[in-house]
Design goal:
Elements lengths: L1 E5 L5 H10 L5 E5 L2 H9 L5 E8 L3 E2 L1 H7 L5 E9 L3 E4 L10 E4 L1 H5 L2 H6 L4 E4 L3 H10 L5 E5 L1 H7 L2 E4 L9 E8 L10 E8 L5 H11 L4 E10 L2 E11 L6 H9 L4 E10 L8
Parallel strand pairs: 1-2, 1-3, 7-8, 7-9
Antiparallel strand pairs: 3-4, 3-11, 5-11, 6-9, 6-10, 12-14, 12-15, 13-14
Length: 277
Amino acid sequence: MKIGYQGVPGAYSEVATINFFGKDGYEAIGYDSFRPLIRDLSNNSLDYAVLPIENSTTGIIYRTMDLIRHNNIFAVGEVFVPIHHQLIGFPEATFEDITDVYSHPEALSQCNYFFEYNEQLNPISWKDTSESVDYIKRNNLKTSAALASKRAAEIYGMKIIRENVQDISYNTTRFLIFRNAIKVPENANKTTMYFQVKHTAGALLSALQCFADENLNLINLNSRPLGNENIFQYGFFLEIDESLNSEAMKKTIEAIKPHVTLTNIIGSYPKGELPFK
């Protein structure tokens, strides 16, 4: 079994992979970016792909959601990973030595207060959290540090200079587990979908009313620009407290058809267990 994720060993996506699938029994393959990862899942070079879709601090992760809304891949699982960013540098480094901090843009944005309080630090965007640790080590950047996980510090033999520098202590990223086939798990109790409504007055309200009519609980609603020539028009991601296989969901999907121009069921899966209670 082959499972793909974005990043290198020590990345939070690898942690999500381990948390969901365990440590053994599969080959984990890291990718530089999301597009080739989704492509390889679509052409069956992978059995599963692990993709981050939402962070509790910064919200929906548009880089992945924009890709999956028009791809025929299907989410069958959900896992939550606590995101504790560590400031990582060389074993001999002190906090006063550090001038530049490398990490993925999402990680940097989750540590805004840390950079506001430490104006001497220059945040630098990099393609991956864990790989930023490898980068400063390979290039012997003694006055640089990286924001990444404890696992990344251990893998590359580097030191945690400051622990847990994220803005919010309960910072958590939600990942969905995708496969290249629509197969709803028997214990699914949550559905993610995307639709584009007609560009007419009341179309969105009418579509959403269909869920209320079947007593379905909408737990998440996010808009996203359509792009291209459809400027300032939007599609919507929805999450519903229900399995795709329920009669209520089937009736609703039929009922919304007069109000939408496009519908894509992104997945239906068992709810993941929150790391904090």
